[in-house]
Inverse folding.
């Protein structure tokens, strides 16, 4: 791994953790404070995370300052995010079918949500690097 790739991946993880906090925080607020169902809350929390992460990945992770290709970057980023979203929307109700409540108590939705965030975050790095932000700036 090159030095550039190492730091890019490090920035991606930092932004991803912040985005996960935004997603997870919104999920908790919607489900625990507002009483929204887990699947419905997931729709809103994921969309908020997508918007947060696009902005930070463009300018901080991949250090793309130009707005020239922002439209196409966002479309590509959104396609990757939409695939990740579908994985989460299918994965959450499927995960709720597992007998996890006996192991973790009534918070099984939180465990499932965390696992899904980790999975889609890791896989989306490679997709975004290869496709959405392919024209990254040269070494910082």
């Amino acid at each position: 791994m090159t030095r550039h790739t190492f730091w890019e991946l490090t920035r991606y993880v930092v932004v991803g953790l912040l985005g996960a906090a935004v997603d997870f925080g919104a999920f908790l607020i919607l489900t625990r404070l507002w009483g929204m169902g887990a699947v419905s809350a997931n729709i809103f929390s994921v969309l908020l995370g997508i918007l947060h992460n696009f902005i930070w990945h463009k300018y901080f992770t991949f250090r793309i300052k130009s707005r020239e290709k922002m439209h196409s970057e966002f479309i590509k980023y959104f396609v990757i995010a939409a695939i990740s979203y579908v994985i989460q929307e299918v994965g959450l109700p499927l995960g709720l079918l597992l007998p996890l409540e006996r192991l973790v108590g009534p918070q099984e939705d939180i465990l499932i949500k965390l696992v899904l965030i980790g999975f889609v975050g890791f896989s989306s790095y490679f997709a975004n690097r290869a496709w959405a932000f392919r024209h990254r700036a040269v070494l910082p």
